[in-house]
Amino acid sequence: MRALFSFLVLPLLLLAAACADPSADRPVPPADDPPLVVFVTGDEEYRSEESMPMLARILERDYGFRVAVRYALDDDGIIDPNRLDNIPGLDVLEEADLMVLFTRFRALPDSQLQHILAYAESGRPMVGFRTATHAFLYEDDSTKAYLNEAWPAQVFGQRWITHHGHFDDGAHPLTAVTLIEAQRDHPILRGVEPFQAYSWLYHVEGGGDRLSGDSQPLLQGRALRSNHAEAGRLDRFPDTQPVAWTKTYTGRSGIPARVFFTTLGHPYDFKEPSMRKLALNGILWALGLEASIPPEGANAEVVGAYEPNNSGFGQRYKPGMRPELW
Fold it and tell me: In the 8-state DSSP scheme, what is residue 252?
C-alpha cells in the first residue's frame, strides 16, 4: 500500500504544491513516508559498486529518500564483483518503491533471484543501467534460459546484442551523446546537455533490431570510433543508437510499471554532471516525481568524492570494500 501511495498519490500532492507556489522549483522531499529506492549492483566490468552508492547518497541528501544498496559479496561479506552467484539481502525489494538494476551475467540462486523477478512483476517502477540488458546468464538451466535475453528485452527494452568496440577503456570518450530534439522538454532531460561518454556504444536498433514495446528514446549516441564501421558493417550495426529511453512493463500484476533505461554506465561517465542528472532525473521520473525535478535538473553535486576505478575485468575493482548504505 505504501508503494502504491508513493507511485500514484504522492506525485499529485507534489504537483499541487508546485502549482500553488510558482517559486517552488526546488526539490520537494516526501514529508512522512519517503520512498525506498533499492540499488542492485553486481557487475565485474563497470564498477556499479561505486557509481550506484554515489547516486544513492545524492537521493538521500536532497530528497530524503530511504536508500539501500545490495552488492555481489564473497563468503566473508567483502564486495567481489567477480562473484556471480551471490547478492544477499534482496528481500529488501519486497518493500521497495523503486528497483535500480545494474548487474551483469549473474547466476543467482533461486532464493535471491525470486526477489528481483517478483519485484519486476509487481507493477512498481524500475530503472536499469547498461549491463541490465544482460543482467543474468544461466547457461546450464533451461528453465531460466529466458532470463538471458527475453527477460531484459521485455522489461528494459532490449537484450545484449553487440557494441562498437572498447578501444582503450577509459583513455578517451567513445560516444557523443545528444538530445533527441522532439524529446527536449521531457522531465528526464532537464539540465542534461550534450556530452561525450566513455561508454562504448551499445547496438539496440537498426539492421533488423528494434526496442521493444512502447520504448521512447530520449538521447542518442554516435560512436566516435567503431569496430563495425572499420569492418564495413554499419548497414547491420549503425553507429548512431538510442542510449536512453522510457517505456512501460506490465507483468503479472497487470499494472503498467514506469521504466527508465540507459545503455551508458562506464564509471567515468558518472564524472559528467549531465550523466548524473540523467540518472537522477530518470529515477525521479520513474517514481512519478517529475514535478520535483527543477528546470535545471536534479542537483548533481556528489556527496563527498567520486573517484572510481576504471572499467575492466579481473582485479580492476577496489579490494577490501565493504557494503555501504545497507
Answer: T
User: What are the start-end ranges of the E strands in 52-159?
Assistant: 66-70, 98-103, 126-129
Is residue 4's pLDDT more than 50?
A: no
Q: How many CA atoms lie within 13 A of 185 on its CB side?
A: 1
Residue pLDDT, tens place only, 73-132: 999 999 999 999 999 999 999 999 999 999 999 999 999 999 999 999 999 999 999 999
Handedness of CA 231, 236, 240, 244 (dihedral sign): negative
Report the CATH number that the domain containing residue 278 is assigned in CATH.
3.40.50
Distance CA 237, CA 127 (A): 25
Q: Grid coordinates standing for 309?
A: 576505478
Whole-angstrom CA distances from 306 to 44, 100, 101, 138, 276 are 19, 19, 20, 33, 11
Q: Is residue 265 part of a domain?
A: yes
d(CA 97, CA 266): 26
